[in-house]
Design brief:
- With 398 residues, the protein is of the alpha/beta class.
- The chain is built from 14 helices and 13 strands.
- β6, α4 and β7 form a beta-alpha-beta unit.
- It is globular, with a radius of gyration of 20 Å.
- It starts with a strand and ends in an 11-residue tail after the last helix.
Length: 398
């Protein structure tokens, strides 16, 4: 049984039925968010019921949009490790530093969460063909879950997408087209062709359900910390679905009575070569301008314009958070530092978060005793060809 009440426009508040296929709000073209009968869930279910459930993201099924377990298209995604980084924390004056390691998801990244939820609902609502523009990891995840669901999948990605992403997407049977340009150019192709080709567009936040998969990171963090949220969450931000989803999860959990009103300070991290959210945050704006000529080897955060920019900025400000940019060289050095200190091969996006933590600690914005979680959104193994660019760089003393 689904407790989904309606879909709600994140900007104008207009509501839509959760039983029909939707993309953006028909009135203002903004993302739609799933709203639930949380009062009914609170009466029927307690968080203690989670104890005997499978260790995957569907353990939170009451706050997921599917009607029954028969609707779920799953490869075992979710409930990833929360690991304390004791050696790194000790070196940098942090007594409670953690990483939520999303590299252990199917397809090696957090994209598995969003695409599991989105494909589940798309299949339930009768979709046969799906398309996506991607910087790489989302394409691989959609190809995998689309294959699992028996769908035909069309993926458009830049020609400089990491080879691992291209190969995994093709191996899962998707139709792959490499394009000259960026993820925004790939999105333009999907938008232009989708109606004639009969594709359903699964672009970030252009349908309501990817965010529902991503929000489970917030539920897991709360559960793994015994329902006491950390002080700071540091998140690599491209399209920002995960950050928005985690913030949404906290609101839901408070209404369910699972957590109190305390919230972490949210930090969005971007590369200096593509930092539209950081710029907008620093300038006090409610939306971000398109970033011209974006450049970074952290392909997951090379997003010149996020459709949910206003939601990202809203969460940062509501949480009294921050937005930080880092250089590609700093990202590369962070991959090495975390790997050599803790044995974790972070993707560049997760490594960007560690660089941001160090910067914020140096500014005393993060306190010594505060509980800090950085999100590693994918495995460094996805980026071997990209990392070769830096292989001759020296590693300064730590």
């Amino acid at each position: 049984m689904s407790f989904a009440k309606h879909l709600e426009c994140s900007r104008c508040g207009k509501t839509f039925s959760p039983r029909a296929l939707h993309t953006l709000c028909l009135s203002c073209q903004s993302p739609l968010l799933v709203r639930y009968h949380l009062d009914e869930i609170r009466r029927r279910s307690k968080k203690t019921a989670l104890i005997n459930r499978p260790a995957n993201m569907w353990r939170y099924h009451e706050v997921m949009p599917v009607d029954s377990h028969h609707d779920i298209v799953s490869l075992g995604e979710g409930y990833t490790p929360l690991l304390q980084l004791k050696r790194l924390g000790s070196k940098h004056g942090l007594s409670a530093l953690y990483v939520k390691d999303e590299s252990l998801n199917p397809t090696g990244t957090f994209k598995a969460r969003g695409l599991s939820a989105a494909v589940s609902m798309a299949r339930k609502l009768g979709v046969k063909k799906v398309a996506i523009p991607t910087a790489g990891n989302a394409g691989g995840a959609l190809a995998a879950y689309g294959a699992r669901a028996g769908m035909e999948v069309f993926v458009f990605m830049p020609k400089d997408t990491p080879l691992a992403n291209v190969v995994e997407t093709k191996m899962a049977g998707a139709h792959v087209e490499l394009i000259d340009g960026l993820i925004t150019d790939a999105a333009g192709i999907v938008a232009e062709r989708k109606d004639k080709a009969g594709w359903f567009d699964l672009s970030t936040l252009k349908e309501p359900y990817r965010i529902e998969g991503k929000k489970t990171m917030g539920y897991e963090l709360a559960e793994q910390f015994q329902w006491q949220l950390p002080d700071v969450i540091v998140y690599p931000t491209g399209g920002g679905t995960g950050l928005i989803g985690i913030w949404k999860a906290f609101t839901e959990m408070e209404e369910l009575g699972w957590i109190d009103e305390k919230r972490p300070r949210m930090v969005a991290v971007q590369s200096e070569g593509c930092a539209p959210i950081v710029k907008a945050f620093q300038e006090g704006k409610d939306s971000a301008e398109v970033w011209v000529s974006p450049r970074t080897f952290a392909s997951g955060i090379r997003v010149p314009k996020a459709i949910g920019d206003f939601l990202i900025l809203r969460a940062l400000r509501q949480s009294r958070g921050q937005a930080v940019s880092v250089t590609d060289l700093e990202i590369y050095q962070a991959i090495h530092q975390v790997g050599s200190s803790e044995g974790l091969f972070l993707g560049p996006e997760g490594a960007a978060c560690w660089t941001a933590v160090k910067k914020l600690r140096e500014r005393q914005w993060i306190g010594r005793e505060e509980k800090v979680v950085l999100l590693n959104t994918g495995s460094g193994l996805k980026y071997l060809d990209s990392l070769q660019h830096f292989e001759k760089q020296s590693f300064p003393g730590e």
